[in-house]
C-alpha cells in the first residue's frame, strides 16, 4: 500500500541484548525499534516528540501494533529500519515500518496506530485543541488529513 506521506530510514545494529538465548532477535524488541523509528521520523521532519508534543501534554498512546517476521536477525547485524507515516487524522496517527537486512531483503514489517491523548489520558481532537500545531504538522507531513478511518 503506497503512502502519500513521507518516510525515512534509520540504520542500526542488532545488539546482543536484543537477542534471545538462541541468538535471534527477540520478537518484542522489534516494537522498541519501531518506537525508535517513529521518534527519529518525527525529529527528521522538524517535529521532535519531546519538544513539540510531550511538552504540550500531547501524548501518542498505542492503540494497535503488529509485526510480521520474515527473516531472523542476529547480533551485530546491521539493518535499515524504514518508517513511513501511513495516515494522519485529527484523532489518530498511523506509522508503517519495514526492517531490511544488509542484502536488501525484508526481515520484518509492521505498523503502529496511536491516539492523541492529554495528560489525563483523555483523547482529543488535535485540530480543535492545537490548531496552529495541527496546520504545521499537516504542512510538514504531507499537506492533508487522511479521509479514511483507521
UniProtKB/TrEMBL annotation:
Keywords, in A-Z order: Hydrolase
Keyword Hydrolase found: yes
GO molecular function: fatty acyl-CoA hydrolase activity
Cross-referenced InterPro entries: 4-hydroxybenzoyl-CoA_TE, HotDog_dom_sf, YbgC/YbaW
PANTHER family: 4-HYDROXYBENZOYL-COA THIOESTERASE FAMILY MEMBER, NOVEL THIOESTERASE SUPERFAMILY DOMAIN AND SAPOSIN A-TYPE DOMAIN CONTAINING PROTEIN (0610012H03RIK)
Family the UniProt entry places it in: Belongs to the 4-hydroxybenzoyl-CoA thioesterase family.
Official protein name in the record: Predicted thioesterase
Naturally occurring in which organism (per UniProt): Pelotomaculum thermopropionicum (strain DSM 13744 / JCM 10971 / SI)
Gene: FcbC
